[in-house]
Here is the input.
Amino acid sequence: MGIPENLIMVIFGASGDLTIRKLLPALFELYCRDMVPEGFGILGTGRTPLDDASFRKKAMEGPLLERNNVPECKGKLESFLQHLHYLSLDPFNETEYVLLRERLLDLDFRYNVSGNYIFYLATPPELYHVIPENLASQRLNQAPGNPAERKIVIEKPFGMDLDSARELNRYIRQFFDEKQIYRIDHYLGKETVQNLLVTRFSNGIFEPLWNRNYIDKVEITAAENLGVENRGSYYDKAGALRDMVQNHLLQLTGIIAMEPPSSMDAEAIRSEIAKVFGSIKRYREEEIEKNVIRGQYVSSFIRGNPVKGYREEPLVDPDSRTETFVALKMYIDNWRWAGVPFYIRTGKRMPTRVTEAVIYFRAAPMALFTGEEQNLIMRHNQLILRIQPDEGILVKFGMKVPGAGFRVKEVNMDFHYKDLSDIRLPDAYERLLYDCMMGDATLYTRGDTLEAAWKFIDPVLAYWKNNPDAKLYGYPAGTWGPEEVNSLFDSPDESWRYPCRNLSDSDNFCEL
Ligand code: BG6
Here is the structure.
């Protein structure tokens, strides 16, 4: 594992939640593991008036102290904090970027960086239109003479629909080349998502089966037990389709469905994902109600405690028609997947927090063993790829019940990451920040892929917008979404998997 070149990471929105809860703790972990260069400065900026000392104090409001207790980090917090600096700056005000340039010159000298900077936009999306231009006004977008390119990291949401995403791509590319732009999708930073690539492409047993000849359907679930918390004003404009499907869940689908890349090179992998997105069948207007079910949670009781409905949440319009749940059926029209339905569902206030993909294999060609349970197994040989929690892999298949006759029972064969006691699963941001420092964009979304994902989502958003009466089902908080969601399946015998918190738990005992 290499060590990045000396660098300064400039974080816009440095006193915000994302920086304090995610970015600084991830950078601290990298620091503890000697994965940052010796010359390494972090310059926080934002409108909140702070100086270096008060920024360092603010940083401690996040989980930094907890991390300080892990063995690699013991005693390193104080020295890490010394790398943190702060500049109060109104990001809208172009003239203040002179101060940024000056401060960077100072820190550049101190850390011996020779112009190697990363600009991280941990800000509301309104600023994605201002910061790149203002950086360019001070020529901070280029590093003449330094082979390491300046990079700009952009958080989601990247656009609110196809037009705005295209426009944003065009706009940023005036100041930064595509290869300088790192669009974050933190799902790609998850260890278990990357493991999908390894599972598929390092094993001989799965790949021959990984196609329409052997796979019946694919089901992807990202359920969350929390509601919208304090993010009502953002979420009410976004909704589940934009918030989770357009980015995280389509990326996951891309990795599950892609062809083997020619190498592990960023462009090779991202081009394969782009091809998948290009092959997703877009819905015609009249197909939308049938293939996309949306819902919104209503007040209920969870384990005896009253829980608010979405419309009662702070900063949410009391008449809101924003979906907090969406489930859809889609097809990837290519040689490998033609005719195989991909079912995707995500929602807030569901019974548990779980993300997983289930590959359902086709039934054996003939039913030799009769009986109800056997029929079920024949339809449902499953490979479950658990992204979180209880990260791991489970195969469900039929075994003979010992004794007379041929009774078949469904059994599990499982692997849990937690059984590898010496392995720690790094946080997604650790991996992504490190990759960006190393100039590796494999796990970042490329501009064309992002637009292709919007192309699929856009007709649905337009349909909902143009048809205010389009169906929006209520579901009680703490349930698996509206009942109508089963209408997506072709057969009334089919249903979704209802996962438990622990990967191998069965329906008889399900801890949520
Ligand atoms: C974010 C969404 O991108 O992902 C949130 O904006 C969602 O609404 C979160 O809760 C889920 O991420 P994770 O890593 O907790 O599954």
